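The data are quoted verbatim for completeness:
=====
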Amino acid sequence: MPLPSIVDIARTDLYTQKSELEEKYAIPQVDHILRLRDMVTWCIANPDAKDRQFVDEIMQRYGLSKVTAYADLKIVKSLLPNLSEATRDFHRWRYNEMILETYQMAKKRKDTKTMEKAATSYAKYNRIDVEDETAVPYHMIVVQPFFPTTDPRVVGINPVPNIDERIKKLTKELGASNPDTLNIEYEEADMNFEEIFDEKPQE
């Protein structure tokens, strides 16, 4: 099975936590994803930036060659149109980053009250106390085959013996006692059924 490309990984896990990325991918791929995430965030903060500014920024931040910088620029540009769909993922990631940063700052100041609030907010937002939902295995659902039939036994109804004869007998008996039921007025349908149901191929 071929390994996923960095573009495919970025499209699915751009804002996945670093620890989870390290469990799924090799370290070079994780570093690349984190770099792309950083530069996507930079692009969001600098929407009017030119390509040259992007290249200069990423080369300065990560010491990349110009070729690699332009390669990352191409990937980031392919990711930006998808950000409208992944906006909520971005804000979730950003919120977690802010909470963790607040926690670390409070820890340095030994502000246990703020630490507790940050930890509670983090746990509540990420629903840590809720058990993981079991995914429904839709791919294992088999569509049942259905076939048309006149046999009532398929729905649990026993067939009536000589049903056609009984229908004819009842029709004759009811028609004799209630002749009006056989003389119902109706209108001829204004349709040419021969044309509608003509099975001959049209030339």
About this structure: The chain is about 55% helix and 0% strand. The first helix runs from residue 6 to 13.
